[in-house]
Amino acid sequence: MIRLPDPKPEVLARREEIVSALRRAVPGEGGVISEPLRLKPYETDGLSAYRQPPLAVALPASTEEVAAVLRVCHSIGVRVVPRGAGTSLSGGALPLEDAVVVGLMRMNRVLEVDFDDRLAVVEAGVTNLAITREVEGEGFFYAPDPSSQLACMIGGNVNMNSGGAHCLKYGVTANNLLGLKAVTVEGEVFEVGGKHLDAAGYDWLGLLTGSEGQLAVITEVTVRILRGPEGARAMLAAFKSNEIAGQAVDAIIGSGIIPVALEFMDRPAIHACEAFANAGYPLDAEAMLIIEVEGSVAEQDMLLGRIKEICERFDPISLKVAETAEQSLAIWKGRKGAFGAVGRISPDYLCMDGTIPTGELPHVLRRIGEMSAEYGLQVANIFHAGDGNLHPLIMFDANDPTSFGKAEAFGADILKLCVEVGGCLTGEHGVGVEKRDLMGVQFTAGELGIQRAVKSAFDPGWLLNPAKVFPLEGNAALGPAPASVPHPAAA
Amino acid sequence: MSGATVAPASEEELAEAVADAARNGQPLTVEGNGTKRAMLRPVQAARTLSTRNLTGITLYKPQELILSARAGTPLPEIEAALAERGQHIIAEPPEPGPLFGAREPATLGGVVATNLSGPRRISAGAMRDHVMGIRAVTGTGEVFRNGGRVLKNVTGLDLCKLLSGSHGTLGVLTEVTLKVLPAPERSATVALRVLDLPAGVRALSAGLGSPYGVSGAALVPDDGGRGPLALLRIEDFAESVAYRAGRLRDELAGMGEASLVADVDESRGLWRRVRDAEPLGAEPGDAVWRVSVRPTAGPAVARAVRAAGLARLLFDWGGGLVWIAGPPTAEAHAAVVAAARTEGGAFTLFRAPDSLRAAVSVLPEEPGPLAAIVRRVKAALDPAGVLNPGRMRAGA
User: What are the FAD-binding PCMH-type domain coordinates in residue numbering (chain A) (predicted)?
Assistant: First the structure.
C-alpha cells in the first residue's frame, strides 16, 4: 500500500476559516465545494483503488482566481492538489485529507486559434479532443492523442507529458507546446515561452512539462496545431511468436520507414479485444501488429506495400492491408477498445506503463508470462512498439482481499524489470503516487536529491501535490510518520 | 580569454576537477571544443574546463533510434556513424565554422548545451526535443543521470530539458543520449519569388499549412537584387518527394513565381547554407542576433530593425526565426531588443565582440516570479557559482 503523509492538525483545525477564505477567492455559485457528500466525486482519479476526500475543492474560473486560491493556501500552509479531468492512471490527482483540490475544469475556453501561425491558446480545462475539434474544420489537429482524449484536459496532459498512439511520428506533449501561463505556490502568475519557438534562456517550458503538479499550477497552454496528412491507412500483421513480431518491427524501422503508429498486442490482448470488438483479429497468432501510414493514396500504397514485403519475410500468420478508411477503422476498432475489452474479462485491472528498449521485448514478455503464473494473475500486453512503451494490463479481483496487493506487487516487479533491461518506470502515465516508491529503483539517492532540490526551488514548503513523484522517506517537509490509506478491498 | 585549460579524460576526473573548483571558489569556463565562445556573454574565469577528451559513441541501436555518446565527441564523428546506417541527427544543428569562424567541429555536448537547431526545427523539433538522456556533473562535482536510453520517459522531473540550452551554467554534460531518425532519401525545394516579406511569410504559412509535410521554410529577403525568395523543403522517399514538391509548387504558384529545385544535392546545399545562416551575409566584424517571434510577426521585426539601419536579414522557421547582422553597437542592440519585445518574442545576441556582449543583456530577463526561482535553481545545482559565471546574465 502507498502511504500518505500525516494530515497537518493545524490545517484540519482551521477548516471553516480556510473554506471561507476560498469562497472569497472564488466567489459565486459552485466556486467552492466543502460538503462531504459533494466532495465524493473528487476523492479519486483514474487509479480508483485509492480514495481520499480532500479538505475542500476550489473550482476557479480564471487564472486570477487560481492565484487567489493559491495565496489563501500558501498563507495558511495548506497543501494543494491540482486536478484536470481526474483521468490520471497513476494517482496524480489523488487528494490528501488536509489538501485543497484546485479543479481546472471550469477553465474550458479556447482563447485564440491562429492557422497562419499554427497555434491555439487554450485554458487548462479544455479537453485534448476539443482542441482538435476546434481546428479540424480547416484540416488541422492537435497531435498528442492519449487514449482518454475525449475526457482528459490539456492542463493534465502538460503535467503528465502525455503521449498516445501516434507520438512515434508527432512526438509527445512536450514537443507540441509553445507556451504556458502558470501560478506559483505563492500565488504569483507567470508565463513561459510564448507564441514563438525556443524562447531564449532556461527551458522552463520543458521543465514544467511532465512535472506532475510539483512546480506550479498551469492555467493556460499555447499548443502547436498541425495540418493533417492527406490520408492515413492501417494494416494488420500477425506472427507466430513475440520474437518474430519484434524482428519485423526492427526490420520496418531499419528500412527507414517510420510509421505514424506501430502497435503491438500479445496473445491475451488479441483474444480479449477480439471477443469484445469482433475486429477480425487472428486468434491463432501469438503477436499482432497494427501499422498505420500517412500520405496520399499512392503514398499509402507505396509504404504499405513495402511494409507488407518486409512482414512477408517473417512467416506471418496473417497480413491484412486496409483498402479503405472503413477497413482501417475496423483494424483499429479492437485496439481502441482494449481497456473496455479487458474490463469485460476482469472488472478490476491495473494498467501499467513502463518503457523498455524495443529489442528487449521478447525477453520482457517471457518474464512477464512467468510472473503471471507465479502471481496467479492474468495479464494482457499492449505495446507502442516503435517507442518501447509497454502497457501490461494486470487483471485482479477486488472482492478478494489479497488480490489487489498481489496485482500491485506484480506491477512493481514488471516495472523493476523495465528498469533492469535499460528502460524506465513510466513512459506516459507519470509517477504519481502509484510508482513513487519505486523511484529508488531507477534513480540513486543523489539523483533524486537533485530533482528534489529543483522542486524545492519552486515550492520550498512542499505544498504542491505532495506525496506524489518523490518517496516520502528522507523528506522532512512531508512529516516523519506517514499514515496509510486503507484500500477498500483490503479493509 | 581564459588561462589554463583542464581537459579530463574521464567523467570521474572531470567531477573531481569541478569539486576542486567549488571548494576553492575558482570559477570555470565550461566548454567542449570552444567553437561558440563568442556566443552570449564572456565568462569571467581564470580556468577552462573542457569536455574535449570525453569522446566516443557509447551506444548505438539503429532499430531503437537511439545513440549515446560522450559529450566531447565531435559532431562529424556522430554524423558519420549515423550515415553508415542511413540515419541522422534530427534537429540539423548549424556548423560553427561559417558563423563563428571556428576551425574545429562542434561537440555533441556543446550543441546540446546551447540547444542549437537548424531549419528542421519547424517540423521535427529542437535539439532539446531529442535529448532522451544525460549524464552530467553538478557544480559541486556530483555525477547524476536524468532521462534514459528509451524514446518515451516521464519518470521524474525532466532535467534533460533544463540542462539543454543552459549553456553549461547548471551542470557539465558528460554524456548525451539522442533520439535519431532515418535520414530522408531525397530532398527537393520549392522556390518562390515574392513581392515583399509579408507575401513571403504568407507563402511559407501556406506551405506549412499544407498536408505535404514541409520540413524547412526560409525566406531570403533579397536574393541578389531580385527581391525576396521563399524556400520550402520537402524530404522523404523519392516517390513522395516528387509528388509532394510538385503539388506544393502548383498550389503556391499563385503567390509568386514558382520554381522547383529537384536536384537532391542542390537542394541539400541550399539548406546547408540556410542552416549556417550564410544568406545572412554577416560581415566579420558584425554582431549577429537571433529573434524568435510568431512567424507572421517576422516582417514587422524586419521593418523595425531596418529602420534602425540593420539591413542584413534572413528568416527561417516559417518566418519566426529572424537572423539579423549589423554593427556591434549598443544602439543596434537596443533596436533588436525593442523589436523582439514589441512582437512578444525573444532575442539572443548570438555573436558579438566582447565589448558589446559584456555590456548589454544578451537574453531577455526572466519573467518576474521566475527570477527568484532561477536563483534557487542555480543555488541548488551550482551553489558555489563556479560553472560559466556570467555566461547568460551578468552576476549569475
Answer: 50-228
